[in-house]
Amino acid sequence: MIATRKVSRRDFLKMAGASAGGLAAMAALGSGFRTLSAHEVRQQQEAGSRVVYTACVMCPAECGLEVHVENGVVSRIYGNIHVPYNSGTVCAKGIAGLQLVYSVNRIKYPMIRVGERGEGKFKRVTWEEALDYIATKLIEIKQKYGPESVIMDCGDVTDRDPYYYLFRAFGTPHTVEHGSICDTPRRHGPKLMFGGKRIEPDIMRPVLVRQPDGSLKNDYSYRTRLIIYVGWNPFTATRINYESRGTVEARLAGARIIVIDPAFSNTATKADRWIPIRPGTDADLFAAMLRYILENHRDDDPFRRYIDWSFKEYSQGWEEFEAAFRSWWDKKDPLNGLPYFSLEWAADRTGIDAATIAELAHTFGITKPAALVWGMNGIGHHYNGYVASILGTVLNVITGNMEVPGGAIDTELVKSSKGGKTTGGDFLKREVTRIVNGREVKGKIEELHMDGYGDWPAAWDDVVGDYPRRFIEGVTLRYGPFRGYHYPIKAYFIRTGNPVITGSNTQKWIEALTAKDEAGNYKVELVVYIDTVFLETGLYADVILPEASFLERMSLSDIYPVHPVLYLRDFVIRPLYESKTQYEICWALARKLYEKGDPDIQPKDFWEKYPTEEDFWNEALKVAPGRPNTDEPLPYPNLPKGYKLLGTPDSLEAGRVQIDDEKKEIRGEPLTVQWLREHHGVAVWPMSWKRFHGGGVLQTDSKKVEFVWDYTVEKDGKIERKGRYSKYNKLIEEAGETPPGIARLGWQKYPATFYWFETRWNPYTNPDYAKYREEYPFQVISGRIHHAMSGTQMVDWLGRLPTEDLWAPLNDERIVEEVIIGENGPTSTGRRLKIPRGTWSIGVIQMNRADGERLGLKTGDLIELETPQGFKTRGKVYLVETIRPGVLRVPLGGGGRFSPGLGKTYIFHDITPNHNALVDPENLSPIMGQPAYGDVIVKIRKIG
Amino acid sequence: MMEEELRTREGLYSLLRALFSYPLTDEVIDAIRSLAVMPDSPLASGLGQMQSRLQEPMDRRALMETLNVEMTRLMEGPGRVPAPPFASFYLHGGQLMGPAATAARQLYLEWHAIPETGWQIPADHIAIELGFLAHLARRAHQATAPEERARALRASLDFLRHHVWTWLPDFCQALREASADPFFTGLAEFTQEAVRLDLQWLEELLAEEAHRS
Fewest beta carbons less than 10 Å away: which of A137, A308, A313, A507? Predict the structure, then answer.
C-alpha cells in the first residue's frame, strides 16, 4: 500500500522540487485532445444516437438485427422483424453481443509474437509494422515455395469474400472456411444428386408468396406433416434460426416430429418420439428404410403408396441406382450374418428394434409432405456419413417430398446468389508454371489445390479435410497437370476460427504449428491469427490482427432461407481500438504486397476497382438473387418463366427491367448497400415451390436429379463424360493412380452409383474393430452447447446457464486465482475469485445412469477417457437417463479450453473434456478426407 | 506563484498521459529521466523505481523493447490483460463501455473537446482521462478571466473525484501486483500519488477560494 499523507498547497509545488520548470515543460507532450466548434459538438452528439439494421455473428446463424445506439454506445439489440429468417426474434446469444463488442478480452491492437509459439507472449505493434512483417514473409514464401504454400482459413462466418479475393489474387488456391473441415459427409448426397448442399424442412415462416389475385403476401401457414431429425438438434445447434421456432409451430399445426439421436436433445423435448440410435449407424437405418419402402410400396394401395413416381420426370439414373442398391440384399454381413439392409440387420446394428424401423419407414413413406433432415455432429462427423447422406437424399426424392409445400428444400439451390466477382474465383483460372520432375508444366492455380489434386480429388467446395497433416508432411499432387509436384505448407492465416480446438486432433494441431526444422525454425514459417476474440489457435500465431466485431463491419448474410433473402451487415458503430474490417485488412495488406513488388497484386484489381468498402459489397450484390423465375406460384408472373432474376425486388415487381432473351436473364435495378439501408436492411424475393419440376434450379450436369454420377451422353456426335464423379474419375484414369482414401475401401475410382462402406472405430458394425468392444466399451459423440461455434465463450452469464446435459453446474466451490498471459505463459495475477459450488456451468461427460452405477460412478466424479491410440481427456461425469447406454456425449469446443482470453471458461479447463483431444487424426473419411470426429471409442477410469 | 502551479499541473498530466499511451517513446523516457523531486516528496518512491529501471546498464533499444513488451502484457493484450486500463472494467463488473465511458464522453463534449483518437478508444481509458485533465489544466492555465479559470479547476476537481479517483487506485494496484518490473510498479505508485496530490491541492485551493469569496 502507498502511505498517504495530507499535503498543503505548498507541498504540491514542492513535489516537483527543483524540476518544476522541467515538469511544466512536459506540457509539450500534449493532452491528446483537440477542441471542437459548437457545430461539431452538435454533430457528435447527434451522431451518437441511431438505429441500424444489421446481421448478428454471435453464432453462425447470423440473424437479422435491429440495433440501437445511444451516446455512441450500443445500447439494445432486437431481432429485425423484416428479415423472415428470424422474423424479429433474437436469442440470448444475440443479445449478449454487447458483451463481445465491449469485452475486456477482445483483441484490440495488432501484435507480433516475441516468445515461442504457444507462450502467448506478444508485443503491440502498429498496423504498418504488422503488415510489413506479413507482406515481407509472404513474398519470401511465394518466391521460395510458391503461393500455394499459403492457406487462408476464413472460419465460419459468411462475410469472408475480401479474404478470398485477396488470397486468390495472391495466387493460392487454398481459401478455406470452417465448412471445409467440418461436416462434408453430411452435404455429400445433395451435392452429388442436386448440385446443392443442405436439405432443410420447409418451415421458414413467413414466406413471401404470390397470391391468386397477383398480390404478394406473407404466408405463415405450416403444411409439414412430419419431420424426422437424425442427429440434428436445431434447438441448440447454431446455424438455422427458423428451425427451432418453426418446428414448434409446425407441430402445433399438426406435424409429427421424430428425433433420432443417441441423446435426448433439446429438440427431442419437443418431439413426439425420441429414438436413441447407436452412434455411427445412421446409414444403416436409412438403408433399411429404403429397402422397406422398395419392398413394400404398392401403387394400388393408398396405405402403402410410399413412392411418388413423378420424381422420375426431373431425375435420371434411378434404375441403375436401385439395381446397385438391391444387389446388396442377398449379401450377408460378416459381423451378424444377416442380409444387408434388412430390418433385422439394421436392428442389430442400430440398436433400434425391427418393428420400430419398419414403422419409421412406413410413416415416412405414407406421410406427406414430410422432410428427412440430418445434421452435422451426426452424419456429418462419421467416416461413412457420405453413404447416409446419399440415402437420406434418395429417401426425400423418391417419396416426392423435395420442393413440395411443407416438404424438404435444398436451401443451397434456392437462396440468393451473392459474391460474384468479389469471391476472386477468376484469379484461380490464371495460368501458372511449375517445374515438376525437371519439366516445365503449365496449369491453372486451382489445379495446385492440396486436396482436390492431392489425395482427395472429390474435395469440392474448397474442402481441405487433410490438415494439419499436410502442414507437417507437405503436399504431393497426384492428379492434374502438376502431378508429382511437391510443395510445403509455409503460411497459415486463420480468421474467426479455432482449429486447435475444433479441427481434427488438438495435439496434432499443436505439433503442426510448433514443429521446427533442423535449424530450429518453425516449419510453418508464418501463422497469422485474425479475430475479435483470442482463442487457443491465437497462442500459436506470429502475428495477431484485430478484426472489427460484427457490429463494426459491413457484409452480407443469407443463412439457408427457403427462398431468396439477403440482408446487410452494416456499421452500427465504427471499429473500436485499432481493429479493422475485413475489407480494410485485405486492402491494406494488398497495398503492402504491391509496394513490395508482388506482381500478382495490382491496383486495378483492388483500390482502383473497389475504392470503398461499399463499392466492394455492391459488386457482391450484383448477382442477386440470381435464381430462375420458376415455379409454383410463379414469383413474377409478368416476367418470362425460367429466366434468371437479377435486381431489387421492387424493380422486378414493377417491371423496371431489361430482358435478355439470349442469356435468359431479367435485369432489374441493381441491388445496392444503399437500397438495403433504405429497406430495413433486407431484400426479400418471392417464394415458390416445385422448383425442381420447373427447371433451372438443379445444378447437376443434366439439370436433373442424378442417381448416377459418372455417365456418358452423346452430343454432336461426340461422347461426353458427365456426372459429379466423372471429373474426378477422369483425373484418376489419366494419372493411373487411385486416391488412398478410396483405395482403402478396395475401390479403383469413385462408383458411378450407389455404394456402401462401413464406418471405422465402430465395433458394432465394422468387423475390423469388433475386437475393441470389451476393452473400449463406450462410443463418444459430441453435442452442441451455446458456446459451440459461437463468439460467446467469454460471456460470463451465458457460462452460468446449463445446456441439455452437456453443460451443467457441476463446479465445486473454487477460490480461483485469476489467470492472464504472463511472461512465461498463463500466469496468476494473484487476484482471487470465489465461484460458489453449483453456480457455474461447465462442460461435462454425459453418461447413462445405469452405466455409471454399474461402474460405481456418481455425478460429479472426475473421469478420464482414453482411446485405443492413447488419446486422453478428462471431465466430470453427469449421470442421466437421457442418453443411450454405452454412449458418452461431450460438448464440442466446451472443455479443455486453455486460452486465458476466454475469461472464466478458462478457469475450469483442467476438469472439462476436450472432444477433439480424442479424435483420431488418421481417421479421415475416404471421399473428401475430413476427420471422422464422431467415430471415437474409449475406456474410462475414475481419477477423482 | 499560481501561474507556475497551473503550468506544472498541465505538464504533470501531459506526462502521465504519455506514460500510459502505447508505445513508450524516447521522449517520455527522457522526461522521466530528467525529472527530479524532493527526497521527501510522495512522488519520490514511484519516480525512483522508474528511474532505477532506466539506469540499468542496458542498450537503450533493448530497454525500450523490454518495456513495451511488458506494457503490452500488462495493458494491451492480446485477450485478457492483468491491468485493463479502462474505468468501466473496475466500476461495471468487468465489462467495458459502461456508464463511466458514456459519462466521460459527454463531459468531453460539454467542454467542446474530443480525443485525437476520436471515439475508437473508450473515453474512460486511463490515457484519455489523464489527457482530459491535461486539457482542463491548459484551459485553467490559459484562462484570461478568473471565473473561467475557476470553472476549469472546478471541472478538474469534479472529474478527479467522480471519474478518475473512483477506479485509479484499483487500476494502479492491479498494475503493481501484476508486474515485477520496477518501471511499471513505479509508474503505478507515481501516478496514484500524483493524482492524489492534485486532488488534495484542488480541494484546498477551491475551498480557500470559496472561503475568500
Answer: A313
